Amino acid sequence: MTPFPERVFSGIQPTGNLHLGNYLGAIVNFVALQKTHECLFCVVDLHAITVPQAPNELRQAIRKIAAAYLASGVDPQKNIIFNQSQVAEHAELAWIFNCVARIGWLNRMTQFKEKAGKDRENASIGLFAYPTLMAADILLYKATHVPVGEDQKQHIELARDIAQKFNNDFSESIAANGYSGGFFPLPEPLIQGPAARVMSLRDGTKKMSKSDPSEFSRINLSDDADGIAQKVRKAKTDAEPLPTETEGFKGRPEAENLVGIYAALSGSTAEGVLRQFGGAQFSTFKQALVDLAVAKLGPVGAEMRRLEADPAYIDSILREGSRRARAIAEPIMGKAKDIVGFIR
Ligand code: AQP
């Protein structure tokens, strides 16, 4: 049995507009988990600056993510909603983890390869070390479960490797400090639902992403009803009607993606959606998807706009959340320092 009580941590970067992938892959699961777990939901602004950000836009983007959490139904009293840069221990623990993790481990991270592209030599060191900061985010709170989209699985596996290596490297010191069963838990990813990997509306083989140059590749939480309708109608499809069984998705990534989105938004499964729409033309299915997406996302977008009009309120939530986060982080960081051999 694990000696670590269950605790959930997750975060979203304040970089650009939140899209349906962030919403279905992450935020929807946050809302569900708050019912059963102690949760921390972070706006990971230190991660955001691994690529250049304009300061004023970054401030707005931080508030936008906080507004999205609140508008989606994450309760700021029950959970801790905060921004990473207000809790200095994230950076402190990340430094220790930079000295635990191996360059070879980070060299294997596909997100770095994708984001750095061919210009690897010019990427920031922060972008390369992104996964060690992410490990620190999670382990600073001894979080045991991390709800994320499929794309983050590799980073959670690395966080487990770092936790394991820290526990091994310092095993004697950990025991001398009175801990049995390791100091850090090995966190588990929670990758759930039919939309754990939402794909681009323009190309069903690429994930929906904030940084895709085409606005038509993604539905943003801030899109209004007309915008959502236009994007769904223009979404790439093929000439065949929808299959009646999920096996029929073979070689049809766009059809699979749209059905997955419908399933996630309606709380169903791909099988359930095909029972209803199997054999239908895309024109019929797309109209149903527009109606569903507008009904589900419209109120979230409207509430986000209302909250964003009151930045002082959002800032007060983040400040209070950061205070509560620090109260958990400080003693864990202090013990980590003792274990490493620092004097405090
Ligand atoms: N397409 C997606 N499908 C399902 N989940 C997704 N997530 C992101 N894209 C999808 C999940 O959203 C959470 C927050 O992501 P993030 O903003 O921290 O990082 P990201 O993965 O870098 O987001 P983008 O949109 O892909 O940004 P860019 O374009 O900058 O790379 C995570 O749980 C992630 O899994």
How does this structure look, described?
The longest helix has 30 residues, at 311-340. β1, α1 and β2 (38-43) form a beta-alpha-beta unit. α3 (55-72) packs across α13 (282-308), α10 packs antiparallel against α13 (282-308) and α11 packs across α12 (270-277). The chain has 14 helices and five strands. The protein has two domains: 7-196 and 311-340, Rossmann fold; 215-306, Tyrosyl-Transfer RNA Synthetase. The chain starts with 6 loop residues before the first strand and ends with a helix. It has helices at residues 20-33, 45-48, 55-72, 89-98, 103-107, 110-116, 125-139, 153-169, 171-176, 225-234, 253-266, 270-277, 282-308, 311-340; strands spanning 7-12, 38-43, 80-83, 145-147, 188-190. A three-stranded parallel β-sheet has the order 1-2-3. It has a two-stranded parallel sheet with strand order 4-5. Helices cover 54% and strands 6% of the residues. The chain is globular, with a radius of gyration of 21 Å. The chain has 344 residues and is mainly α. The structure holds adenosine-5'-tetraphosphate (AQP).
